[in-house]
Design a protein that fits this description.
The protein has 308 residues and is mostly helical. The chain contains 14 helices and 3 strands. The protein has 2 domains: 92 residues, DNA polymerase, domain 1 (Orthogonal Bundle), CATH 1.10.150; 181 residues, Intergrase catalytic core (hpI Integrase, Chain A). Helix content is 57%, strand content 4%.
Amino acid sequence: MITIARAVDDFEGYIADARRFSERTVRAYRSDLDRFATFWERDFGEGSASTTPLSRVDVLAVRSYLASLHRGRLASRSLARHLSTLRSFFRWACREGHLEKNPARALPSPRLPRTLPRAMTLPDTERLLAADEDGPFPERDRALFELLYATGLRVSEAAGLDLEDVDFASRLARVVGKGNKERIAPFGEEAGDTLAAYLPARAKRRRGSRAAESEDGEPLFVNARGGRLTTRSMARLLKRRLRAAGLPAEISPHALRHSFATHLLEAGADLRAIQELLGHASLSTTQKYTHLDAARLREVYRRAHPKA
């Protein structure tokens, strides 16, 4: 019968070779499982992980392990990750015939704190969009961030836009979002003007570039070599623009999407309409992007309720 240590080694090979997980992800799984093996040897089992059959591990062992992590004041998110790692490991072991049932399957996940996404204030957003930075492609950078804020697009959606997806006259963009769902995203006059100013510079970068010959379609946002701009490059461009605007460097590209939703809601937009603009299948997802403070809620109540 396979031992705990041998099963961990085989599982590592499975996720690295068969599942092709990234090296970083494989290391994270291995670290979690090594911690469980150490717990077994030190606090729970009667032998080492190298000699103990995997079949000896039961629900009590997994529960005791999670309890030890909790006593060590591990955060809820970290506890949930460790449990997820064990579920995946034991699920693989069941498929391979090493176990009859998954001892981690029925254990409840820790309740995670509900964190609210960060949105920029309107003045900070205006500072970001108006920032004067001396990048090599300023027309593209301004058009990119104006469009992200004007539409609430995910950076992956902006990276996937082609020229033919944008109706410049009507100021509408056809967006392919998660699950290959299409939606129409309107954008305002200022975003339209920055796009129009960017197009000649874009055409110049595309003209004669190798990327233009090898790529399918005509990407809206291109890099210095004329190829499609990646999400990683967008994040790097944002960091540079944040420095130029004197804003915190930890603001993420997704903050523009959060800001889009929050500013619309604060201006009185209907939550259902924001849901459609963001391309969310569920209204509950949209609510996570909108974080009104208590003062704002009190003001809405005061103006709207007849007995306020």
